[in-house]
Write a structure and sequence with these properties.
Length: about 150
């Protein structure tokens, strides 16, 4: 069971640079051949100043950028071997392009425990990562619900 006193706790910031090649690789990996993710020229022809961030790229930011995420979850009292993915959502606040350096701050914003049959339980936790760019401008809020089976 997670430590409920940790709701509201934020962790030290982490940074990640948005790379053009990674945007392209993600689009290719999921089979999206839209040319705006392949080259700056194609993106500009479609009206973008550069290759736009692929819509689900923030999933990778938490794993590639926040190398301490597993330890941070453990510090909340979570058994990371029992995590299930609940849901994920992104709120884009400003455009994000290759070359941007994002700083993310992860916060446990909510958590509850549900009792199941036979004495089992599950924790349902909501984590938010607020990202700013290299200019200090808020650009993205990523929210993830994780379920921890006990």
């Amino acid at each position: 069971m997670f430590d409920k006193s940790k709701i509201g706790q934020s962790f030290p910031p982490f940074t990640i640079e948005v790379e053009r090649g990674k945007i392209r690789e993600l689009a290719l990996a999921i089979g999206d051949d839209n040319p705006i993710y392949q080259s700056r020229e194609e993106a500009q022809a479609a009206g973008y100043p550069d290759v736009p961030l692929y819509p689900t790229s923030p999933t990778t930011f938490a794993f590639w950028g926040n190398r301490k995420m597993v330890g941070q979850l453990v510090s909340l009292g979570i058994n990371v071997m029992r995590i299930l993915h609940g849901e994920e959502e992104y709120e884009y606040l400003a455009p994000i392009y290759p070359g941007d350096t994002l700083t993310g701050v992860m916060t446990l914003v909510d958590g509850k425990t549900r009792q199941g049959q036979g004495g089992s339980s599950m924790d349902i936790l909501t984590i938010e990562i607020a990202y700013t760019n290299q200019h200090g401008t808020p650009v993205l809020k990523a929210r993830e619900v994780i379920i921890v089976r006990e």
